[in-house]
Amino acid sequence: MSDDRPRNREAEDEIDPPADDGAEAMTDAPILAPRPTAGLQSYRDVLLQLSQPIVDQVRAEVPAYRGPDGGRRHQLISRAADAALDAFVEIAARRAPVPRKLDELFHRMGWGEAQDGNDTENLELAMQVAMRVIWRHLTDFAVDRNQTVEGLRDLIDALLEYRDHLHAQLMSGHSMWGRDPYYDENRARVRLWDLLWGGTVGRISPLRPLGLDTEVMNEAALQAGWPVPDQVVAIAVSYHGKPPPLPETAEVLAKLQADRLHLLCPADLVGTIVSDLTRSATDRRVVVSWPVTPEESGSALLWSLRALDLVQLGVIPPTQVVRCVDHTIQLWLHAEPLMRRRLCQELLEPLLAESPNSREILSETLLTWLETRDSAPAIAARLDVHPQTVRYRWRRINELFGEALHDPEFVIQITLVLKSSLLLWKGGDQRDFDLFRDMKEAGQ
Questions:
Q1: Which of 3.30.40, 1.10.10, 3.30.450, 1.10.20 is the CATH number of 337-441?
Q2: Its domain of life (predicted)?
Q3: Rounded to whole angstroms, how far apart are CA atoms 427 and 316?
Q4: Domain 40-183 = CATH 1.10.490
Q5: b or e along 37-67 (b: 16 or more beta carbons within 10 Å of the residue's beta carbon)?
Q6: Do 328 and 360 touch, CB atoms closer than 8 A?
Q7: Which residue pairs from 157-162 have beta carbons closer than 8 angstroms and sit at least 24 positions apart in sequence?
Q8: pLDDT digits over 26-37, tens only?
């Protein structure tokens, strides 16, 4: 059966959310029982046809919500009824959480009611009217079609729990306005950026959960007017002189520094934004993370900034557009610079003691062998040298490391340390050698 309800997809809710440090958090967790609602399929079609009856009855019984046909209030009520019914059918069938955008819609409606100077009486009455319309249509349908009492009971229980969830969003939005009626979007967006950046950066333990608390993030996003996307991509841009133009859309969060621009944007906007950034000037390098959930935005920002640094250090090739997905191993290996340096001093001590030229050629030969386990001729072909040169180098490597090269654990460790260190050395980073020399002079 087709769903022929009138739709108002072009209706826009123009209510702006406020900034509020102490606001009650929006809920965004699964709210129903862990199994599909019994009998839902029998009632699905009738539920999906209730939007117009609900809208008509609410406008008839709540004088404040009448207004002109097709007016802003009429469109907003229709939009809320459509979205709530669609979401319930999906939630009850799949046991999914309440959609984030539906929570935002009801939260904004509550805030807008308070902004208009009204208490919660109209909101409460509208919810009661809507539930009464649903109840009457479902019971009439159940009687006409000889549906079981158990199926109707389970459906009503799920609807009541769903109603309570949406009611909580309305009340939360309404009470937020009472605590902070002055909305400063710039301040709210700065606070949201700081929240996202700090949410996953600097995790002190693998036991700490990944990502932000979803409810906290949703509340901050609502205050900042940021439509939370399903997938987020972090973009880092290095530039000289005049900064790049900022994307003029609420969907993109941005932070501008003296020589870098940081962006968080929906995954589907990445192509356009990267194209605009690279086309507007030739001296810009753009780093793009892979898509993550919004709760993991801080990690994506960290990867993009680390990639910019690794380009500067010579670890990642200096292309105009750098995609983190092409350099995941290096991003991982350089996640803890001090740990890499410590392991370098411990595992590569024999190489660090060699002369600069000897150190470079021996390290390159050893890493090639560790990664390929090829024969001397094959390694020679990779390094563009004579096979006898490789054999000579290999004798020296065995003199330096001896039986340790037969220890699987040592081989894994030295492979990772060399892979992360050799490109640094080739890029001119001398800090490992300076530290080695200083430690030797200090007798450590």
A1: 1.10.10
A2: Bacteria
A3: 10
A4: yes
A5: bbbbebbeebbbebbebbbebbbeebeebee
A6: no
A7: 158/32, 158/33, 158/37, 158/88, 158/92, 159/88, 159/131, 159/134, 160/131, 161/31, 161/32, 162/31, 162/32, 162/88, 162/91, 162/92, 162/98
A8: 343 333 333 445
Specify the DSSP class assigned to residue 335: S
What is the second-level CATH architecture of the domain 189-333? Answer: 2-Layer Sandwich (3.30)
Q: What is the pLDDT of residue 19?
A: 40
Residue range 47-60, pLDDT digits in tens: 999 999 999 999 99
- How many H-runs (helices) and E-runs (strands) does the chain carry? 18, 5
Task: Give the C-alpha separation, 45 to 89, whole Å.
Answer: 9
Alpha helices in 21-71 (DSSP H): 40-48, 51-61
Query: Which residue's entry shows tokens 């909101």?
Result: 123
Sequence-distant (≥ 6) Cβ neighbours of residue 157 within 8 angstroms: none
SS (H, E, C) 229-268: CCCEEEEEEECCCCCCCCCCCCCCEEEECCCEEEEEEEHH
**359 phi and psi angles, rounded to 5 deg:** -60, -45
Domain ranges of the chain: 40-183, 189-333, 337-441
Q: What is the pLDDT of residues 162-210, one digit of tens each?
A: 999 999 989 988 887 666 554 455 778 888 898 898 776 555 566 666 6
pTM, full prediction: 0.58
- Residue linked to tokens 């669609």: 86
Buried b (16+ CB within 10 A) or exposed e, 207-222: eeeebbebeebbbbbb
Question: How distant is the alpha carbon of residue 273 from its chain centre?
Answer: 17
Residues 6+ apart with CB under 8 A from 275: none
